[in-house]
Design goal:
With 185 residues, the protein is mainly α. The protein has two domains: 3-85, RNA polymerase sigma factor, region 2, helix turn helix motif (Rna Polymerase Sigma Factor, Chain: A); 94-181, PhyR, sigma-like (SL) domain (Butyryl-CoA Dehydrogenase, subunit A, domain 3, Up-down Bundle), CATH 1.20.140.160. 73% of the residues lie in helices and 0% in strands. It is built from nine helices and no strands. Helix 1 crosses helix 2 and helix 3 (40-57) crosses helix 4. The radius of gyration is 18 Å and the shape is globular.
Length: 185
């Protein structure tokens, strides 16, 4: 079943939308959630939370890319669950590490003062990603959007861990240079 048909089921409030979404994207969503939370049970809960969020949001939301929309919901649910599970443990490695790497480049302003600035930053990062070769873009997105750890990236991209780390470091420096050129840093 294609994405438009699934969205149509959501709009009709047909519960088959959940099962079709799960059949189509469940494995991918679980994988992303598992990479963030670190275990299968939490990943399954994140998928359920994302399905509920999609059910509550569609309609009125009408996502253009249902897969990306669902992955965003799963990522958000996984990040929320991870934060809740690790509020007392500030030495969490995986997500904190990847966020810290980007924090050196993109300043944390607490609450975003202006939605326009956030969108400008997002547009600049997207423009930067479009300039990258596919392999580097995939590596960057896997690390900083899906919080995939260095060891998994190394296997996925058939690179040594030090090569992955060095490539990501160079990409962060290029991103920083790009953001400065755009006047966002």
């Amino acid at each position: 079943m294609n994405d438009q048909a699934i969205i149509s089921l959501f709009e009709q409030r047909n519960e088959q939308a959940i099962s079709e979404s799960n059949q189509q994207y469940g494995a991918l969503c679980r994988s992303v959630a598992r990479d963030i939370t670190g275990n299968d049970e939490d990943a399954e809960e994140c998928l359920n939370d994302a399905m509920l969020a999609a059910w509550n949001a569609i309609p009125p939301a009408k996502p253009k890319n249902f897969c990306a929309y669902l992955l965003k919901l799963v990522r958000n649910a996984a990040h929320d669950r991870y934060r809740a599970a690790h509020t007392m443990k500030r030495n969490a490695a995986n997500i904190a590490g990847s966020i810290d790497e980007l924090a050196e480049i993109i300043p944390d302003r607490g609450d975003v003062v202006d939605e326009v600035e956030r969108r400008e930053m997002l547009n600049a990062v997207n423009a930067f990603l479009k300039e990258l070769p596919q392999r580097q873009r995939d590596l960057f997105v896997r690390r900083y959007c899906y919080a995939t750890d260095i060891a998994a990236l190394s296997k996925m991209f058939h690179m040594t861990e030090s090569h992955v780390t060095m490539t990501l470091s160079r990409l962060r420096k290029r991103l920083q240079k790009h953001l400065r050129k755009e006047g966002l840093l």
